[in-house]
User: Which sequence fits this backbone?
């Protein structure tokens, strides 16, 4: 995909239900969005990164009741747990939206009104199955052994309801997918959505009238908006829609990438574009559906008590380590298997041994044997220019991978540079040159410091703390830590601080 230089970039995570504490699945999407946001910022693009909490609906109302709290008080409390994962995981969101904010509610109602004005909503009665856990309607044929296809319990619901004429959008949706082959990724998910839409769409119930915890339907306060309609609109209300001159909406909406889990793709790939078309609003540019993590080979569930929280991960492995593992371990789009053993193996191999040792070896050597300053290089050999060309060329490659949300490939690419640099150290043996050819040793160390500069900048979206440490140790001025300074040569003679390790090795603990 090509994109104009410096165009704005907008990335969203799903807004998380506040019935539950944050877990590895939430951390996963948020970290992925953060990596994209950080990369594009380094690349000089204006970035808006949105995350937040989904706070209405029957599921939340019931959870609040169980907790013996008023729903607003309950959502205030749980929403804060989601907000807390940002400092924990070094997330750099621009905005954290809550659907109980007044501005969001007004925005959602404005979109409802547009659907009414355009003649796409009618009042009728819903009689069918509803799964509170999924906040989704199912018809009889979809049920498997009396449960939703997701395994959620269903209940029979019969109530007055407003409907959205989804069935009328089938052809337009199919034409849209056809005209925009990059709209849904990965390809396999796109195909699933297309066959689902081809199999026929039924009108969608978009209001509930048997409980009240939701956005009131304009002009009919007996109904609250269906929580998915309310929730999906957050992606534009967060940008100020429908205010006149909502600058963020104008700037960012045309460049959105929605990251979602595979289980909620249908809401984003079918309902959301249909709502927007019907409201005469522009459609999102890109949807990426990622897979699900299992824990030590099992589905994560409360009943199994095997939930892995962001706090568990950070306390045990570290922030950068958690971020790197989740991004690197599985192709973005596939399901992933989390295990302690895989985590420790990955962290020790890629972070402690490959990147950590490279940096530590080179910088301590410079500190001890090259006057603790960027060495003065002599003439470069073919091997020198080869390494520098290799690490320089990682940037355009990385851009392509980021544009495809191929986050695992992005990590792979950067770590290919790490391997090249390690091979170069082994081949050049600067420790041997110290006696045999001190001038050549300086050149080799200069080349290595330059390669490490490239690698640290490229790694920084994924492992921001380590990258900062490395760039500090290379005395790179803070304002120069962007891709526009990527090709700048290091200044010989610039003093370097005493290096310290960036990635400690992890040892297995009892029971791991
Ligand atoms: N509130 C809706 C989203 C509304 S967006 C307009 C919702 N919330 S959720 O909290 O239930 O789920 C949020 C995300 O977590 C989903 O993308 C879901 O795929 C993801 N995950 C939940 N469990 C997961 C794993 N075990 N692994 C990876 N992601 C998982 O749905």
Assistant:
């Amino acid at each position: 995909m090509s994109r104009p230089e410096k165009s704005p970039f907008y990335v969203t995570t799903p807004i998380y239900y506040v019935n539950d504490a944050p877990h590895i699945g939430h951390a996963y999407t948020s970290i992925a969005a953060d990596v994209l946001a950080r990369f594009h910022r380094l690349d000089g693009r204006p970035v808006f990164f949105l995350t937040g909490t989904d706070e209405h609906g029957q599921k939340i109302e019931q959870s609040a009741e169980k907790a013996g709290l008023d729903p607003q008080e309950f959502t205030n409390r749980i929403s804060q747990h989601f907000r807390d994962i940002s400092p924990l995981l070094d997330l750099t969101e621009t905005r954290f939206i809550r659907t109980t904010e007044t501005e969001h509610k007004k925005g959602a109602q404005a979109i409802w009104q547009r659907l009414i004005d355009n003649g796409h909503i009618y009042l009728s009665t819903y009689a069918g199955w509803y799964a509170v856990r999924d906040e989704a309607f199912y018809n009889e044929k979809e049920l498997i052994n009396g449960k939703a296809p997701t395994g959620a319990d269903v209940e029979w619901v019969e109530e007055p309801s407003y409907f959205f004429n989804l069935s009328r959008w089938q052809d337009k949706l199919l034409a849209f997918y056809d005209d925009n082959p990059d709209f849904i990724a990965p390809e396999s998910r796109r195909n699933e959505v297309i066959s689902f839409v081809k199999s026929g769409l039924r009108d969608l119930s978009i209001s509930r009238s048997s409980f009240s915890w939701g956005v009131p339907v304009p002009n009919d306060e007996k109904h609250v908006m269906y929580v998915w309609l309310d929730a999906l609109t957050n992606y534009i209300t967060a940008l100020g829609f429908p205010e006149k001159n909502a600058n963020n909406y104008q700037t960012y909406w045309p460049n959105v990438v929605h990251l979602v889990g595979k289980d909620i793709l249908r809401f984003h790939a079918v309902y959301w574009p249909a709502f927007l078309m019907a409201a005469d609003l522009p459609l999102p540019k890109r949807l990426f559906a990622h897979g699900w993590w299992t824990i030590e080979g099992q589905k994560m569930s409360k009943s199994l008590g095997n939930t892995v929280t962001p706090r568990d991960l950070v306390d045990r492995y570290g922030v950068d380590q958690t971020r790197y593992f989740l991004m690197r371990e599985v192709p973005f789009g596939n399901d992933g298997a989390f295990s302690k053993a895989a985590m420790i193996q990955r962290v020790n191999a890629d972070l402690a041994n490959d990147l950590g040792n490279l940096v530590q070896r080179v910088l301590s050597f410079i500190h001890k044997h090259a006057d603790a300053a960027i060495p003065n290089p002599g003439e470069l050999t073919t091997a020198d220019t080869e390494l520098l060309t290799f690490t320089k060329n990682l940037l355009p490659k990385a851009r392509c991978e980021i544009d495809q949300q191929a986050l695992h490939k992005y990590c792979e690419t950067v770590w290919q540079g790490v391997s090249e640099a390690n091979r170069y150290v082994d081949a050049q043996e600067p420790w041997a040159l110290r006696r045999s050819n001190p001038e050549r040793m300086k050149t080799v160390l200069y080349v290595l410091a330059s390669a490490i500069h490239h690698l640290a900048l490229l790694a920084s979206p994924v492992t921001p703390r380590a990258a900062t440490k490395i760039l500090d140790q290379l005395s790179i001025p803070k304002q120069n830590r962007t891709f526009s300074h990527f090709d700048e040569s290091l200044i010989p003679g610039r003093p370097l601080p005493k290096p310290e390790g960036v990635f400690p090795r992890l040892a297995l603990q009892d029971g791991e």
